[in-house]
Amino acid sequence: MNRKRTKEIARTFFHHKLLLSAVLLAIVFVSMLLVRMMPPSETEIRRSACLVEGRSELCMASGADTIVLRADSVNQQGVWINKHWWWPSCDGRVLTIAQGIRPQMKGRTFSESNLPALLQAVTDSMGRLVERKDVERKELEYYLRSHGVQDEGYTRIAHYSDLQKIETDSLKQVYKLWKAFKPSAHMKLVHRYRLRVLWFNNDDQLEQTACLPLVSDLSRQGEPIIVHTMKSMKPWGAYAVRKLIWGGSDHKQVMSVTLVPQDSTAAHHALLTTGIYTRGRQHNIPALFARDGSPVFTKYGQFIGIISQKEVK
User: Fold this and answer.
1) Is 6 helix (H, G, I), strand (E, B) or coil?
2) What values do phi and psi take at 25, rounded to 5?
3) Whole-structure pTM value
4) Gap between the Cα atoms of 170 and 121, Å rounded
């Protein structure tokens, strides 16, 4: 009987222990959710912004082959963001705006329907240019061989000849890429981004990290995109925002965060600028402080989105 009684007591204690553990876990989870629902402080809002720099390339893609048609620099802002509002899940994710290059050449807009014709026209034009460059280089080489006096004019032409050789060799490499490109029925235009993220650490020093290459459809131009850092980690001291599942009123007082140069005396090198935002996405924040990618918060600290020209997306 004593052994049976002991087993019953042990079983009851085990059940109570499980119940207590479940209650404690529930309390911890609810407490965490309550903390996650709390608005960020002003310091955290300032720490959420970052800079996004690099290159945006307009590319023609056909299977595994890709050719860069045009390239442009990217210099804008972004915000560290969590994947889930209820859990610290940034993992190096930065929300910013897709800044694409318009598919134009010599004032003409081209699309995926006329890509084969564009490919042929550019390749032919580049081939003719290579031929002219080869003729010019041979003429310069002949002049240098036949010219007996090495005066100042000779030196200048020799230097010009060296530059032309470098330029011609580089052009030939590009021409080979275009000639080797294999068109297909599934050719398309895409934007490829090679970016890096910069932020100010706890010592107010500017740090940076590279991002994974990102390929985006042309339709995403001007829309929010998420880039991932190589290390997939949020830097120490940075604050990652979270997009709550509920919205706010139709008419809001908002504030944007704009990072300023390193020699600025602003707290955390970030300026807060107030404005008005409506549910139609329009805002009236001054253009100087409404840089693409700048995060926008309500006056209560709720994250709304990021600026894309005159809209908040």
Assistant:
1) helix
2) -65, -40
3) 0.78
4) 20
